[in-house]
């Protein structure tokens, strides 16, 4: 067999062999990210893609493992719909999701990302008083559908569902509270305070009636997401949390940049701390 023919045969065999094992695309190229507004973790804009601590951190993690990620690819949806989409759409993920016992088997988790604080808010001059958690049963409560505060209240106060007015997001909660159409809202403290300004609300006109136990938040992935990608992202996050020569970690420096300056409203009757 001539040299040219031998090379041709070998190349043909190699091509045939490689065809049996096609190149695997980057795992992250198949992930569809979803978000709703939850400052400072996910901040929505009218004229650009979402920003925020969780958005930037996910970008750093994805790029560090050689995967594609662009904030402009994040699909913004009302919270309840975003959670539903990630539950049913393979290889999808939520930028921020509280880890609750009832959610453990419904998602795959990368984190923890942070701890958030939840509080019950009322208008300062409304006359609403909550000296103990059970007092919430006297009032109408604005809640965002399919969120962790709903699970908290339902578990703590069976029957409280009849007091709840279900809403699409934090802006709707704030408008309902401002207009007196609900007596109380329950939501993350930092996000609520930051978004009050967007709704033309002065923080000093509102007060926190009650604080709940803090919640740990993660990046939440559809449960069919490739385990290899989950493991690589978890390793990337763990590495970002390691203290370097500066005496802090890249994670802590990024977190401080986004969360520094959050000052909770004064607390009245904060028995839940």
TrEMBL record:
Annotated signal sequence range: 1-28
Alphabetical UniProt keywords: Signal
PANTHER family: PERIPLASMIC SUBSTRATE BINDING PROTEIN FAMILY 3 (PTHR38834), SOLUTE-BINDING PROTEIN FAMILY 3_N-TERMINAL DOMAIN-CONTAINING PROTEIN (PTHR38834:SF3)
Protein name: Polar amino acid transport system substrate-binding protein
Native source species: Pseudodesulfovibrio indicus
Lineage, broadest ranks: Bacteria, Pseudomonadati, Thermodesulfobacteriota, Desulfovibrionia, Desulfovibrionales
């Amino acid at each position: 067999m001539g040299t040219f023919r031998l090379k041709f045969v070998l190349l043909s065999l190699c091509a045939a062999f490689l065809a049996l094992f096609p190149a695997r695309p980057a795992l992250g190229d198949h992930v569809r990210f979803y978000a709703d507004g939850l400052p400072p973790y996910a901040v929505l804009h009218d004229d650009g893609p979402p920003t925020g601590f969780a958005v930037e951190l996910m970008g750093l993690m994805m790029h560090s493992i050689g995967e594609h990620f662009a904030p402009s690819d994040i699909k913004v949806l009302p919270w309840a719909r975003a959670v539903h989409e990630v539950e049913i759409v393979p290889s999808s993920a939520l930028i921020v999701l509280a880890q609750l016992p009832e959610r453990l088997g419904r998602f795959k988790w990368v984190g923890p990302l942070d701890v958030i604080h939840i509080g019950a808010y009322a208008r300062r001059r409304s006359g609403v008083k909550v000296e103990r958690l059970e007092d919430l049963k006297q009032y109408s409560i604005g809640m965002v559908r399919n969120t962790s505060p709903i699970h908290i209240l339902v578990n703590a106060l069976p029957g409280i569902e009849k007091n709840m007015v279900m809403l699409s997001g934090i802006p709707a909660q704030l408008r309902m509270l401002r207009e007196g159409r609900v007596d109380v809202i329950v939501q993350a403290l930092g996000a609520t305070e930051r978004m009050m300004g967007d709704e033309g609300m002065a923080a000093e006109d509102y007060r926190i009636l009650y604080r709940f136990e803090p919640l740990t938040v993660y990046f939440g992935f559809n449960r069919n997401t490739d385990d290899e990608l989950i493991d690589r992202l978890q390793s990337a996050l763990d590495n970002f949390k390691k203290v370097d020569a500066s005496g802090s970690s890249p994670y802590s420096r990024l977190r401080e940049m986004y969360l520094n300056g959050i000052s909770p409203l004064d607390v009245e009757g904060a028995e839940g701390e």
